[in-house]
Records
---
Amino acid sequence: MQARENRRVVLAARPKGEPRAEDFRLETVALPSPGEGQVSLRTIYLSLDPYMRGRMNAGPSYAAPVEVGEVMEGGTVSQVLESRAPALTPGDIVLGQTGWQEYAVAAARALRKLDAARAPISTALGVLGMPGLTAYTGLLNIGQPKPGETVVVAAAAGAVGSVVGQIAKIKGCRVVGIAGGRQKCDYVANELGFDACVDRHQTPFPRELKAACPQGVDVYFESAGGRVFNAVLPLLNPFARVPVCGLIAQYNVAQLERGIDRTPLLMGAILTRRLRFQGFIVTDFAAQAEDFARDMTQWLDEGKVRYREDVVEGLENAAPAFQGLLQGRNFGKLIVRLAPDPTKL
Ligand code: NDP
């Protein structure tokens, strides 16, 4: 039998600053046959996430970088084509981490079988997947929101932020989102039910944020950094909690700008207002995955949590879509469809 052709996107060069088209390379290779305990897969959906920018850099981080020439890392929902593992049969739909490619061979034990009857399979990459778990665990464990408190959420129209704000509403908080542009803000306030949403691109953004938080801020779910953080910091109440989930404004910064050192200001605020900042990586809370799946499934069924997906077609559009994600061009959980979804045919 002739080997199947596999198109994949590899890291061509390490970006300096914003990733450019030349930093990615689309190539075609032969797909190997699965060995014992392995399956061959056809990718249906590829997740694009901000953490991938970090994997493009060399140097120490919480996870190893993608090497130049290697397939870009990424979460995927795929269909099993051929199986040499008893747990999986052809046709099964699985969640994996098989990267930016149309086909893959993977160990069955690295895959989780999905039940298409329970939820649309793409949600395993978003509201019911890693971004949803990030929102749930970061907010509840670190943010510890209490009824009546004000919770501010950065990147509020996105995969993580949209879920953070809706859970904070379920917990009885006043919730203020921050998003890029009027359209996203309207969606956050009108469709997701946040109490307010402030456009970070508007010039009076810090003033508008202050006006939207008349009681100050008790929990700030940080995903942005930069100008957004600077606007929130003066509003933090004594004993505020800040889950530091992401700092997307600085992912493309190759070198810190020279300027006034604001560290003393930040440290002074932490001390006098007894602020609690805690960085986290979703895997820190892997043990809570079952609680999350139970609660989130119920909230989705009850219509208490809504989600939006931004679906891009075709592997050749993965890199431009990823570049757009880092500039705020996505509107909802960013996903690339690489093959027709067999559960929707
Ligand atoms: P989103 O779907 O929210 O997309 C990213 C969004 O970030 C953009 O749409 C844009 O929203 C916003 N953004 C982009 N550039 C900037 C900027 N310069 N300043 C402020 N905001 C910007 O992505 P996710 O929900 O997947 O991720 C959100 C955050 O959570 C990221 O920081 C990510 O790294 C982090 N994260 C952390 C995890 C962890 O384990 N700690 C796990 C998963 C995600 P807008 O234009 O509307 O502001």
---
Amino acid sequence: MGNTRLASCRLYGFIDTAYLAGRRPSDLARQLIAGGADILQVRAKELHTPQRVEMVLAVIGVAMPRNVPVIVNDDITAAFESGADGVHLGQEDWVAIPQEQRNDRLANMRIVGISTHSLEQALQAERDGANYIGVGPVFPTGTKPGVPPVGLELVQQAAGRVAVPFFAIGGITLDNIDSVLTAGASRVAVVSAILQAPDVAKAARAFTSKLK
Ligand code: 3NM
């Protein structure tokens, strides 16, 4: 079910509390969607589950009528309680869930996404049943500081070997997106280059006009 909807997704937009700067999550969601983001993630690292649920509900209120799936970063409980479309798990969080518990823990999730940082992880996530994967960080990024970039080589390898939809992520900007697309990505996930732009909708549109 997740897969048919994901197949058409191209720009993964974020409501990331690190870049809210006093803006309302629902407003950001509206602007991201206006710019063509067709899947959204709520990434609220420092919030507790109840506040995260509240934020996700505000985003769903905007996204659901526009048929845009909403994914919750890291927090399976918040994803479940808010009725979000799915959850995105980092590699460490994913491998920390014992294999025999994964089906139960994720039973209500229509979409499960997993971060991957090598071809081995990407292929393993696919075997494990991820509906989509993230591949990155492609370039160094202040959003995930201190994580060594995987470079365009991994994008190229993923494009050749991974059948599940994959989003290139990490340090992607309007200046380097062409190289990411040339390496074989058809989907990108972008946080700071959009949320730090003076006009979020316009910045998202600049990315979506490069995709498809
Ligand atoms: N995950 P920006 S890189 C959230 O490689 C995230 O799994 C990554 O933010 C991964 O577009 C990343 O600002 C940061 O670089 C993306």
---
Amino acid sequence: MLKIKFIQNNGEERIVETYAGPTLMEAASAVGVEGIEAICGGSCICGTCQVYVESDVAVVGPPGEDELIVLGETGVQKSTSRLSCQIRLSESFDGMTFTVAPPRKG
Ligand code: FES
């Protein structure tokens, strides 16, 4: 069992209990974390599942080439940005915190 904290756009914190295996987006969507729209269903196209990594970035790893392009198109990218649909959860994610990115611009 993993516990992951999401900080939503409205400032509210959500603790999500999940497990290793699904993507971070799937874990967030399953319980309705606000702001994780995931319009493309995890295909690394829409950029509406963006999060900012608030914990150890090394655990999450860097974004891939395609992911970087999509992140750059959102207009709200930070150095710690990742697409949550591209993050596969493992036991190492227990206790991590992610801030949900604001809606993309344009
Ligand atoms: Fe569309 Fe992640 S769900 S890019």
